């Protein structure tokens, strides 16, 4: 097949964030048997070397300048005004128009007018902005939505109650997102989600468009099982630290839970690993025992050296890459319902893959149990690795995605 893959995110190296990880691995799989043209954006953090390396995984790579990343936590008033204008003009939520490129849209329209194309994939629902009605009516369009934006918004609103400004509350209102999802789903020949929960949500929006599930995966070679349990009192959190759900998770854990854990385990250390930490994350370094490391050379090293991986997410939907990566490396995980969504990891001790916690007292009990019980750590490590090997390899996800594009 001739495939046009659209991604506003630059998906290399495959550790920039969940969207980039998913896009890269599905791209890598499809490129083995199909002619894939990838069109994406590059910002100031992307190096020429990274561009050259990504090109090896495509038939053709076309890049456009992306909108410059803001260095501070809040946009200035000119950015706010520009975004508000674009949202009203295009009828899309800010997260969709933020990285919209007029030049990229023009290139896509021209490319489709002069090149045979069997299928277009939008890698994340935000990329549907590049698909016009004429294209949607003439070429098979697969929107790899990942998860519902409305569900993500609602969960973030619950977690951050009272912290959003009036303008953002208006722009991100549930009504806007509901209408947006009902509109863009009509462009698709197929919608791809990562979990059964999101599939049900999309089915409520439309009974006419097929909704297929393609779960996330994990590179089992890139995230090898660790050789030994290091013991100790070292916690790790991994995730892109400019993502709202990750910021909320670490701030909540560090302020409401970590000090209580320190009273029981004075030597406890938390390493926050993830690129582009925002100012509110950097401020957490003032808490004794908390290290904000930013982007590191090897995420795997920090996972292997950790006693426990924590995933205290209160927002977000879909299968989390950070959870699968912890499972693959064998670090015992304590995670919330949001972090463990879409995973069948509960049960008796023979099948238990992680400890579930949502309230502070549950985190306290789970972390204490794991620090005190090496046998429990070993059991979770081994069960989790077996679980991802069986259900969440990228080859398996790639095969399912390929089938969705064909059928």
Quick recap:
With 407 residues, the protein is α/β, with parallel strands linked by helices. It has helices at 18-30, 48-55, 77-90, 94-97, 102-114, 133-138, 149-159, 166-171, 174-184, 196-205, 244-264, 279-282, 299-305, 321-329, 360-372, 374-391, 394-406; strands spanning 2-7, 35-42, 60-65, 119-123, 140-146, 190-193, 211-213, 234-238, 269-273, 290-294, 308-311, 333-335, 355-356. Helices cover 44% and strands 15% of the residues.
Helix share of residues? 40-55%
Q: Please trace the helix and strand order, writing H or E for each element.
A: EHEHEHHHEHEHHHEHEEHEHEHEHEEHHH
Q: Structural class, judged by helices and strands? A: alpha/beta
C-alpha termini separation: 12 Å
| Biggest pleated-sheet summary | 7 strands, parallel
Note the overall shape: globular
Total beta strand runs? 13
Unreliable stretches: 69-74, 163-167
Approximate strand percentage: 15-25%
Number of helices: 17
Question: Strand sequence of the main sheet, in spatial order?
Answer: 3-2-1-4-5-6-7
Radius of gyration: 21 Å
Q: What is the mean predicted local confidence, pLDDT?
A: 88
Report what the structure shows.
This protein is an alpha/beta fold and 407 residues long. The chain has helices at residues 18-30, 48-55, 77-90, 94-97, 102-114, 133-138, 149-159, 166-171, 174-184, 196-205, 244-264, 279-282, 299-305, 321-329, 360-372, 374-391, 394-406; strands spanning 2-7, 35-42, 60-65, 119-123, 140-146, 190-193, 211-213, 234-238, 269-273, 290-294, 308-311, 333-335, 355-356. Residues 69-74 and 163-167 have low confidence and may be disordered.
